[in-house]
Each structure stands twice: as structure tokens, then as C-alpha cells.
Amino acid sequence: MKRMLVAVLAALSLLVTGCQSSTESGATKTTRKQLLLVPAEAVNQQSAQAYRQTLVKAQRARRLDTTSPDAKRVLAIAQRLANQVSVFRPDATSWKWEVNTIKSDEVNAFCMPGGKIAVFTGIIQKLNLTDDELAAVIGHEISHALREHSREKVSQQLLQQGAITLVGIATGSQIQQGMAALISQYLFALPYSRTMETESDIMGLELMARAGFNPEAAPNVWRKMAKLQKGAPPQFLSTHPSDQTRIANLEKALPTVKPLYEAAIQNRG
Predict the structure, then answer these.
(1) What is the pTM of this model?
(2) What domain range is 185 assigned to?
(3) How many domains are contained in the chain?
């Protein structure tokens, strides 16, 4: 009984310390307390493994694009955005960033935990994205990684499993007995919440402005997405289709980030 009480107290302590914000607020004041019970190292390890498998599969299918104009655009834009991440996370400047383009009709892009970026040519070509619009897409995905939304949603799912799982994490037994399997199970299957999507929209808007991309292009991406849906949203918007609320949130934040964009343009000039 005493041992169980100690374990429960340890679990409660972990729950309290697990509530933190993974990023600084930035100019757009994008911050809130997050439930981050799962070790970041474990999530990053699983993500790196999945990313590598994705690249190997694309390479075998001769779909890994490293030479096309679109691939060069993706790399250049992602690098400019990654150069601005210190405003939200100074430690992210030392991440092992990777950027790849995959030939596919799929309208999708992602940035896995730890800075593993992939952009599918379908999202570029079907939306006819300009550099500024492409920066909005990649900035949105980078923001998911900076905010550790994947780690957060796995933590939330594990907590929902009840006190037994929580006690297991606190005592270390869950990490030793299948934590990697649990992370792998939930990491990519669970969708991001509306709160997470909104955070990534606004943080991505600030990132692109600081990198010298016109933030006014961001709302236009979601207008294009809405036209493309035709009854069923593409995978990129499978859980949170573009709507007027999303566009309105971006437009509301424009006055805050426009000075950052103007300063970036002046510095680049």
C-alpha cells in the first residue's frame, strides 16, 4: 500500500512538472501550458526512424526529388525559415534539420519532431504555390515541431489510459516495457487539435515574416485549399478543413507581423 501511494504521488508530481510551454511566446504571444509527459528523446527517436523509412521508400520508388526547381525552392525556403526558429526555441538551432521533396500527387507536407521536413510536390503544383505561400505551408509545419505537438498529443493519449499508465511512467516501468511501441502507435495516428492547428498557423505566420516572406500570402493558401477540397479535404487538412475562421485568425495577426516582415526586407536589401 505504501509503495502504491509513493507511486501515485510520483505520478501526480510528474503531471504537474509535465505542464509547461515548449516555446517562447514570440511577437504573436503564442504560448500556453502543455502536457509533455513523454520524454522528448523518445519521440524524436521514433520520428527520425519513421522519417528515414519514408525517404527510403520514396527513393526506391524513384520519387525522392533533389534536383528539380521545386526541390530547390523547398530547400531554400525551409532553410530561411529554420534560421528564424531561435525566437521561439533557441535549442532548435542545433536540431539536425533535414529537408526533402517527394514526387507525389498527394497534397501534403510535414515536419516531424526534431526538424525532419518533407514536402510533396502535389501541394506545390495543385495549389500553384508562390514562394511566399510555400513559406506559409512549411512555416506552419515547422511550428508543429517547435511546439512539440506530436509529443503533446501522445502524452494526452497516454494520460487518457488512466492512472495505471501514469504510475507506470512515473516509476519508469512503462518506459522500459513498451514506451517506444506506444509512441509509435500514437505519434502519427492521432490528429492535431484545433488549438494546435491555430498555434501553428500563427507561429508559422511570424516565422515567415521574420524570414522575409510576405505574411499576407498565408491566408491565400487556405483559400486555395478550400477550393481544392470538393467535398473531401486533402490529407493536409483532413481533420481541420480551411474555413473563414482560420483565415480570419491569420488576417487578425497580420498587423503584428507586418513590421517584422518589413524589417526583414530592409535588412536583406
Answers:
(1) 0.85
(2) 2-268
(3) 1
